[in-house]
Amino acid sequence: MPSYLPLPPSPLSTSPYPSFLYPSPPPSGKPCCSQGGGRRHKTKVAILGGGVSGIASAKVLLQEYGISDFVILEARHELGGRAQDTKIGQTTIERGCNWIQGLGENPIWKLAQKWGLENVEQDYSDLVTYDTSGLVNDTVVMQRYDKLFESLGEYAANRSEQGRVDLTVKAASGILGWVPTTPVEKIYEYYNIDFETAEPPQVCSFYNALGNTEGGFAPGNNLVLDPRGFKYIFQQEAYSFLDQGGKRDPRVHYDTLVTEVRYGQEGVEVVTDKGTIFEADYAISTFSVGVLQNHDVRFLPELPEWKREAIYAFDMATYTKIFLHFPSQFWGDEQYMLWADPDVRGRYGIWQNLNAPGFLPRNGSENIFFVTVTDSEAYRVESMSDQEVQDELMQLLRSIYGNDIPDPDDFYMPRWTKDPLFRGSYSNWPVGELEGHHQNLRAPLLDRLHFTGEAMSAPYFGFLQGAWLEGESTARAVGQCLVKGDASCPSYEYHVELDVCEQPTSFTKRTGGYGRWPKARDQTPDDGYERSG
Ligand SMILES: Cc1cc2nc3c(=O)[nH]c(=O)nc-3n(C[C@H](O)[C@H](O)[C@H](O)COP(=O)(O)OP(=O)(O)OC[C@H]3O[C@@H](n4cnc5c(N)ncnc54)[C@H](O)[C@@H]3O)c2cc1C
């Protein structure tokens, strides 16, 4: 048997809590319930999902271990996963990931350079704020928040060093004196926390969610503005090692939905919606934690309780960008406009100007203003029609910029939570998720069924680099088992039961300092009104 862990005991034998979903037949050597009359294909490794993690896994298997006998099973018509785009007017806009967050050694930055991806430096401090009274003097609030953010970093490090328990970001902020009460204070906090984590401070783990936005790499957040879309670099990278120009490599099965994964000590069987069964020595699941939480794929035997605990203890957050295309630009040149809603924190709060200097040309035909909503506001808009959302947005914009502004001539809003292939936009580390939970999230089952994807990356969860690096590292584990034999499989830590006293959380997860935000102004912008403080 592989040495990496004691065999997880049968879910039924360790846990009095099987889920009520389906009966769990006892695990045997063969993948559970090995039967079914569909077409059968044998392969060494079945990669489930062709997003960034799936591509990185395939590349490592092939280039580092010489394993060419793999398949990628992808439900969509193309590779890239959450790197996907559409057009508004004549402009390509990113439905999903938009920034390269962290430069230098960040593998995503390296791919961007390798494939010549067009991107522009983002300046989060280039902003104006409005509330119901008009343009707001926000300097004092910003300075206070920026100070708080610095102290939060130090406080987290000190607490963690002393072995003190994790808190929510809201609790930690409150302890340090930040209790936002005005709409401007609330939107500025939202800009610094929710706009990154896609969940509110009362949910986010102080130690783990408040990391470094550049993900430990050299500072810099660059916005991708490329007509070929962000996905271009991932697809090009895949095509560079796949056969037949990539797109037609028979190992990549597009439009193929995985419906069931049967795992045992000798291998894995993967059943698709086409009735085909892939018999693999190993499988690598790249499904988002949202997909795992929603039972979109049936696992047999049922995932053990410790695995389910890890899956449900983590969060799949929702971050929704709503794009409006106008015949002319009526907003300012700043990169950001913050709206401090008087009633609901974060409602249509963060606007981005795609016509800022250095972005799309000003006064051309492509005038794009887009707003981001998260969490409960994202769920709210997802349940509304496009027209209802557009009407609300236009009412707000007219209250800010006047009744004369034109109607949009194009509109686009994705619905990530409703999409069964994703069930949200990216993961977030909530308070209550222990390091041990996260180790359980990553741990393979019976050494045969591996789990990868952005959520499994402790330092870079949520980010593209998390997806890429985790895909690579999982493929290395599988490659080692295949090439050197089961006895050399790397070990993964996992815990059938988590004892809170033995599982302290710490603030060392995300390396690279605490410079995630704040979006402090380097200098006071010349925006035509007097600032105090
Ligand atoms: C709105 C939004 C904004 C974001 N912004 C940024 C950003 O600016 N910077 C950044 O670094 N990251 C950002 N991210 C996160 C980033 O996109 C993800 O971390 C990364 O793309 C995840 O890659 P993955 O391979 O782990 O997962 P995925 O991309 O989810 O790959 C999984 C694949 O599995 C497929 N699949 C799912 N179910 C099945 C099934 N049953 N059968 C077959 N195939 C299936 C899916 O189609 C998908 O292709 C953003 C994401 C979103 C949605």
Keywords, separated by commas or semicolons:
7-stranded mixed beta sheet; FAD/NAD(P)-binding domain; disordered N terminus; alpha/beta; 533 residues; disordered C terminus
Based on secondary structure, the structural category is alpha/beta
Q: CATH superfamily assignment of the domain at 11-80 and 232-315 and 422-496?
A: FAD/NAD(P)-binding domain
Q: Tell me the distance between the termini.
A: 66 Å
CATH topology-level fold name of the domain at 11-80 and 232-315 and 422-496 = FAD/NAD(P)-binding domain
Query: In percent terms, what proportion of residues is strand?
Result: 15-25%
What would the principal axes of the Cα set say about the shape? globular
The residue fraction in helices comes out at: 25-40%
Radius of gyration: 24 Å
Q: How is the biggest beta sheet arranged?
A: 8 strands, mixed
Stretches with pLDDT under 50, minimum 5 residues? 1-16, 18-28, 508-533
